[in-house]
Design the sequence.
């Protein structure tokens, strides 16, 4: 799933490609992706792109006062096309294409942007709104962890308000902190040397400072690494720089211990027991049930 660093890089890349260009058509090949009807998609035809921004994990293409807001969900992605076909895409269960944004012709070609979604679980969402806050997911976002107003004091209030909830869940809840997902919450907690199950309100002042630095440093470094990369390069860039997420069974790059995993119904977390839990493996209830 694209998280804050990748979505920020996508916004930067698209800003350079789209600024000042006209959107001539938006074709929806997967009708479940379109979540709004007022204004209609036709309202954006001919609109000039003014900016591309990020709100948490949401991409916001602003054009002539309208906002085409996109959430890539777990399996969505963007593919730039130097020249899109003249024939509109047809709805198909076999094609990953969900939406095609067609731009004005230049130098005899018609560039565009294909928005795809792999797999059978379709969660990708597209909104056309007058204000990004008209999108419920944007309106309910917590603070962005890389802005100046995300201070140690604000993080302390968030953790206190969360009570005994586990750090992993608090970090990745979009209504609490915007933009952190499964992968970077694993990476932040590994950098902070904290258990994903640690109660949020149990941190000392020193631990709070360590966690705050891990959030800012981990995300900030990922944004800097992603800067300037095209969309086609971002997935590989992210994967190559992860310390524990997606690396179960491999050695921890810090201590050499084996990276462990806890599985859930539809996701999993990875961690290093030596670095994060005092050497004690976390209970994996799903695997325990399978072994009985």
Sequence:
């Amino acid at each position: 799933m694209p998280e804050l660093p990748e979505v920020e890089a996508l916004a930067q890349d698209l800003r350079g490609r789209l600024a000042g260009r006209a959107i001539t058509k938006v074709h929806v090949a997967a009708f479940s992706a379109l979540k709004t009807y007022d204004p209609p998609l036709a309202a954006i035809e001919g609109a000039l792109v003014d900016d591309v921004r990020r709100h948490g994990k949401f991409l916001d293409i602003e054009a002539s006062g309208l906002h085409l807001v996109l959430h890539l969900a777990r399996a969505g992605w963007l593919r730039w096309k130097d020249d899109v076909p003249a024939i509109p895409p047809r709805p198909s269960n076999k094609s990953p294409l969900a939406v095609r944004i067609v731009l004005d012709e230049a130098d005899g070609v018609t560039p565009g942007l294909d928005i795809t979604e792999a797999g059978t679980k379709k969660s990708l969402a597209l909104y056309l709104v007058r204000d990004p806050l008209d999108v419920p997911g944007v309106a309910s976002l917590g603070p962005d962890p890389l802005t100046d107003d995300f201070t140690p004091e604000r993080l302390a209030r968030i953790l206190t308000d969360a009570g005994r909830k586990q750090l992993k869940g608090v970090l990745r809840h979009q209504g609490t902190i915007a933009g952190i997902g499964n992968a970077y919450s694993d990476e932040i907690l590994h950098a902070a040397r904290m258990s994903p199950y640690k109660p949020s309100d149990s941190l000392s002042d020193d631990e709070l400072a360590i966690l705050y630095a891990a959030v800012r440093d981990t995300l900030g470094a990922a944004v800097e690494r992603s800067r300037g990369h095209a969309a086609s390069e971002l997935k590989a860039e992210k994967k190559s720089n992860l310390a524990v997420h997606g690396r179960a069974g491999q050695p921890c790059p810090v201590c050499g211990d084996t990276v462990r995993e806890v599985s859930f119904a539809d996701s999993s977390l990875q961690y290093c027991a030596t670095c994060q839990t005092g050497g004690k493996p976390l209970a994996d209830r799903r695997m325990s049930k399978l072994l009985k």
Observations:
- The mean pLDDT is 93.
